[in-house]
Amino acid sequence: MAIEINGAASQATTRPGQCLRTFLREQGNFGVKKGCDGGDCGACTVHVDGTPVHSCIYPAVRAEGKAVTTIEGLATVDGLHPVQEQFLEAQGFQCGFCTAGMMMTAATFDDEQRANLPRNLKGNLCRCTGYRSIADAVCGHGPDGHGPDAHDAGADVSGAQSPAAVEPKSGQLGDNVPAPAGPAVVTGTARYALDVPADQLPGLLHLKLVRSPHPHARIVSINKAPALAVPGVVAVFTHEDAPQQLFSTAQHEHYTDDPDDTRVLDNVVRFIGQRVAAVVAESVGAAEAGARALEVEYELLDAVFTPQEAILPGAPVIHGDKDAVATRIARPLDNVVAEVHAELGSVEEGFAAADFVHEHTYRTQRVQHVAMETHSAIAWVDDDGRLMVRSSSQVPFLVKRTLVRLFDLPEEAVRVVAGRVGGGFGGKQEVLTEDLVALAALALKRPVQLEFTRTEQFMATTTRHPFTIKLKAGANRDGYLTALQLDVITNTGAYGNHAPGVMFHGCGESLAVYKCVNKKVDAQAVYTNTVPAGAFRGYGLSQMIFAIESAIDELAVGIGMDPLEFRLKNMVRPGDHMLSTTPEPEEDVHYGSYGLDQCVSLVRDALDRGKERYRAAGLDDLGPEWVTGEGAALSMIDTVPPRGHFAHTRVSLEADGRFAVDVGTAEFGNGTTTVHAQLAATALGTSAYAIQVRQSDTDLVEHDTGAFGSAGTVVAGKATLAAALELATRIQTVAASLTGAPLADCRLVDGAVECGDRSVPMKEIYDAARLQGVRLATDGNWGGTPRSVAFNVHGFRVAVNTGTGELRILQSVQAADAGVVVNPRQCRGQIEGGIAQALGATLYEEVKVDDSGHVTTDILRQYHIPSFADVPRSEVYFAKTNDSTGPLGAKSMSESPFNPVAPALANAIRNATGVRFGELPIARDKIYLALRDRTLVPN
Asked: How far apart are CA 549 and CA 633, in angstroms?
C-alpha cells in the first residue's frame, strides 16, 4: 500500500530496514531533519495519522496505508497553521534546524499539554534558544514574551531590559525586526547544507569513513579489494591517494595561527575515531558495508591520555615526526603545541603583601557543541571544471582557501557555498568534511556527499578544551588584589587545531578585566591521544573565568567583603590599562564604551528584587533541609579577534526599488542576516523589510573571514554600514540632479527620496542612474580594528537540599553591555541561548573518555544537553552605552553570555553551602557527596 505524504499518495517503495525519515527526505521533504538517528532530539518529528512520531526510528514500512504529514504539509490552503504563526510572531527559533520537529510536536497539544511543556516537549531538543521563545511561541504569548511567570514568586515587574540607548525606528536600528528567514523556517523550506533535490545532483555518491579503533598506531597496510567488491562501492581513498600537504583543520584569517600537524588521510592515527580511509558508493548503505569490509593492518604505538602525563620525560611522543619551525609546534618532542610564560610585577611581593591568599586547582571538562545539524558537505565538479562545495560551515571563504592550498588549485577554480547552518558554536570553524568530498569529487567527477552521524560528532570532531588551572591569588584587608598567579595546562587532544589561540585568549581578558600590578601566567597547550579539542563558544575564556571568578569570591569571603563590592573595587575602568600577559595593553583595544559598572548594578538590583518577591510571596522558607545563596560573576571580551578579521560587502539598489545586501557571513542562528538588513536600512532611510540579504557564497563578495569571534555585527556589519552610507550619498546625488534641489535637501525615506516638495520613487532613481551611467552598487570593507570590549555579568539565587544534593535555580539574571542593541529581541535570544548552553556545561555535560582513549558518551541519551525542563527563564538586562568603534554604536554579543555562568552558579552554591566546587560539571551526585562529607559552613 502507498504512503500518503501531505495529502498525496507516494509512488515510491520503501527499502528493507529503511526508516521513515530517510524515505521522506528522498521524496523531497527536506523539512524532516536528522539530528540524532536515535529518537533522542525530535528534529525529525512528523505526524502519522495525526500522531507525532520520531521518524528516524519509525520503520518506513509501517507507514504504508497511513497518512503522513511533514512540516511542508502542516499549513493549509487557508494559510499557516496556528502554531506556525505563533513561532513566527514570537520568533521561537534561532538556527531553525530543530524548529520543524518542535512545531510538529506542539501542533498536536491541547490546553492541558500546553500547561505542562517541561513534560510534553521533553522529546524535542534545541541548542540555540534557551527555550523561552519556544515556550512563548507554543503558548501563543507573542513577541513580547508575556508568558508564564519567570519565577515561582511572579515575574520581575521592572521590565526585561534597560532603556534603549537610541530611539528605535520601525525596521531600523533598535527595532525587533523578525528574522528574514522566518517564513521559510516555519514552513520547512529553509535550505540547509544537504537540502538539495536529487535532480540537481544527478549521480550523487555517498562517502563513509573507516575510523581508527586504536589511540595511536601506524598503518602497515590497507587492502581495498574486499571493500571494492561490495556491490555499489565505487572507490576507496587512503593516505596513498590523499595530498601530502600538512595543514590544520582550524580556520583563521591567518592559517599560520595554528600548527600544520594534520593530513587529509594519514598513515599514523593518533586517536580513536581518526579517519583512516574514505569509502565512496552509490548509497549510504553500500558505503557503510564497504567501510566494514576494508582490511587495515596496524602497528600499535604507545599512547598517552592526560596532558599531565604527556609532558613527563619519556612520555610517548605524538607528533615527534614534525619539524617545530615548519609546523609551528612549540616543542613537538615534549608534546607541547604552544606555551606562554609571563610575569607582570612580582607575584612574590604581591603575596607577601596579602592579608588573605586563596590557592586551589580548578578543572573544566570536555564539552561538545551538539549543533543540531551534524557536519556535512557535498562536492562536485561543474561543466566548467570548477570544484563546487556546499557545506555546513561558519567560514566558507576560509574553507575555499584551505581547499585551494590542499589540492593546489587556482582560486577561481573553487566555489564554496554555505546554506543555512544548523548551529555552529565554533564547531564549524573547521574543515572536517569538505576536504574529503573534494578529494573524491575531483577524482571521480561525480557529486559526493558526506554527513556525519551523531556518534561521529562526539568521537571524531572537536570539543571544548579541558583546562587544569592551578591558581593562587592574594588580597589585602582594604579590598584590593595584590597578586594573581596561574599555572595552566590545556588538553588539545591529538591535534593542535585552535590550541594556541584558545590558550592565549583564555589567558587574556579573564586576567585583563582586573587591576592587579602583580600577575604571573605559565600556560601550555599539550597533545594527548584523545579526541581533538577546538573552537568552542568563549574560546578559552569560559574555562579561565570559571577559575578566576571563583577565586575572586573566595578572596572576598576571606577578607570579609561583599563579593560584588570587591569586584567593583578591582575591575578595570576607562583609563585603566587592560593587562594580562604583556606589560603594555593591546594597541588596538579600546574602551569604545563602558557598561561594566551598570551591569553589576543591574544584576545586584535584580537579585535584591527577586529576594523580596519570594519573601512577599511567602516562598523564602523551603524547609529545614534547604539552604539558599546568591552568587555572581563578571566577564570581559574583546569585540573582535586579534590580528585582523576582514569583511567585504556590497549594497545595491535593484530595479524594483528595493535594496540588496551581499555579505560573506554565514547565518546559523547568530542573527547576522537581520543585523545587516537593519544596519543597511538605517543608513538608507528605509525598512529592513525592503532589504534582501544574500550571503555565505564565495562568488558573492571578495572575502569574509567568517562568522566566529562574535564578528558578524562588528566586522561584517561595519562593512555593510560603510557600503550603505556611500550608496545613500550616490542616490541623493542622482535625486538632486533630477530635481535641481540642493544635495543637503535630499533625504532618503522608505521607497523614495524626498527633495523639498518633490518625492522621487526609488524606481525612478534607478532608471535615471542607468541613463547617467551611475553605478548604484557600492562596496564596503572593514578589517576588524580598532576593537572594543564587551561585558557580561551573571547572577543566580539558588536553593540546595543538604540531604539529597538537589539544586534549584530560584533566579537567573544576566546584564550585558552590548552597546547600542541593534535588535533587542534577537540579542536577548542570544543571551538566553548562551545561558542555557552554559548551564549544561556547568551542571552535567561532559564528553567522557575512558582509560583507553575511547569516547563513552557518544549518543545524545548518554550526553545530557539541556531540555525544556532544565532551563530557567532568565532575566536579561542591557547596559545603556554607545560604542565608538562598532557600527552605529553596537558591540558583539554571541559568545560572551556563556562565560560568566559557571562561576556565578558555583559562587551561589558556595554561598549557600560553604562548599567550593572547583571542578566542572557540578553534578547533583557531586553536591550530595561533598555535603555528606563536610560540615556546612554558616553563611
From this structure: 6
Beta-bridge partners for 819? 890
Closest CA to 33 of 450, 461, 426, 451: 451
Alpha-carbon separation of residue 813 from 426, 609, 610, 867 (angstroms)? 25, 11, 10, 19
Query: What confidence score (pLDDT) does residue 233 get?
Result: 98
- pLDDT, block means (10 residues), the chain with 939 residues: 94 95 98 96 98 98 97 96 98 97 98 97 97 96 53 42 66 96 98 97 98 98 98 98 98 97 98 98 98 98 98 98 98 98 98 98 98 98 98 98 98 97 97 98 98 98 98 98 98 98 97 98 98 97 98 98 98 97 94 98 97 90 95 97 94 97 94 96 97 97 93 95 98 97 96 96 97 97 96 98 96 98 96 98 98 98 97 97 97 95 98 97 96 67
DSSP letter string, 298-366: EEE------HHHHTSTTPPPSSTTS-HHHHT-SBGGGTEEEEEEEEES-HHHHHHT-SEEEEEEEE---
How many whole angstroms separate alpha carbon 526 and alpha carbon 468? 11
> Can you tell me the distance from the alpha carbon of 913 to that of 909, in angstroms, rounded to the nearest whole number?
6
Half-sphere exposure of residue 118: CA atoms within 13 angstroms, side-chain side: 7
How far apart CA 353 and CA 481 sit, in angstroms, is: 10
Residue 709: its pLDDT value, please?
87
Helix (H, G, I), strand (E, B) or coil at 525: strand
Q: What is the pLDDT of residue 500?
A: 98
- How many Cα atoms within 13 Å fall on the side-chain side of residue 241? 19
3-state SS, residue 152: coil
In whole angstroms, give the CA distance from residue 195 to residue 72. Answer: 13
Q: How far is CA 534 from the centre of its chain?
A: 12
Q: How far is CA 170 from CA 167, 690, 760, 822, 925, in A?
A: 10, 12, 21, 12, 50
pTM over 0.70? The answer is yes
User: In the prediction, which pLDDT does 151 show?
Assistant: 38
The answer to whether 424 touches 696, Cβ cutoff 8 Å, is no
What is the residue whose three cell numbers read 560568566? 900
User: Mind giving me the DSSP string for 161-220?
Assistant: SPPPSS---TTSTTS-PPPTTHHHHHHT---BTT---GGGSTT-EEEEEEE-SSSSEEEE
The C-alpha atoms of residue 37 and residue 56 are separated, in whole angstroms, by 5
Give the whole-angstrom CA distance, residue 338 versus residue 883. 34
Q: Please report, for residues 263, 410, 414, 448, the alpha-carbon distance to residue 387 in angstroms, rounded to integers and kept in the order given.
A: 20, 10, 5, 12
Contacts 24+ apart (CB under 8 A), 21-27: 21/55, 21/56, 21/58, 22/60, 23/60, 23/63, 24/55, 24/68, 24/70, 26/198
> Taking a C-beta distance cutoff of 8 angstroms, is the pair 243, 264 a contact?
yes
pLDDT for position 152: 43
Instruction: Evaluate whether 607 touches 795 at the Cβ level (below 8 Å).
Output: yes
Question: Cα dihedral angle (734, 735, 736, 740), rounded to 10 degrees?
Answer: 120
215-247 CB burial, b ≥16 within 10 A, e <16: bbbebeebebeebbebebbbbbbbbebbbeebb
Quickly list DSSP for 410-466. Answer: -GGGEEEEE-B-S--TTTTSB-SSHHHHHHHHHHH-S-EEEE--HHHHHHHS-BPPP
Do the beta carbons of residue 931 and residue 802 sit within 8 Å?
yes
In whole angstroms, give the CA distance from residue 225 to residue 293. 9
| Helical H segments across 820-921, by residue range | 824-843, 901-913
Question: What is the helix, strand, coil percentage profile of the chain, to 5?
Answer: 30, 25, 45
Do residues 787 and 914 lie in contact, with contact meaning Cβ atoms separated by under 8 Å?
no
DSSP line for 589-600:
B--S---HHHHH
Could you give the CA distance from residue 721 to residue 782 in angstroms, rounded to a whole number?
A: 10
Q: What does the chain come to in residues?
A: 939
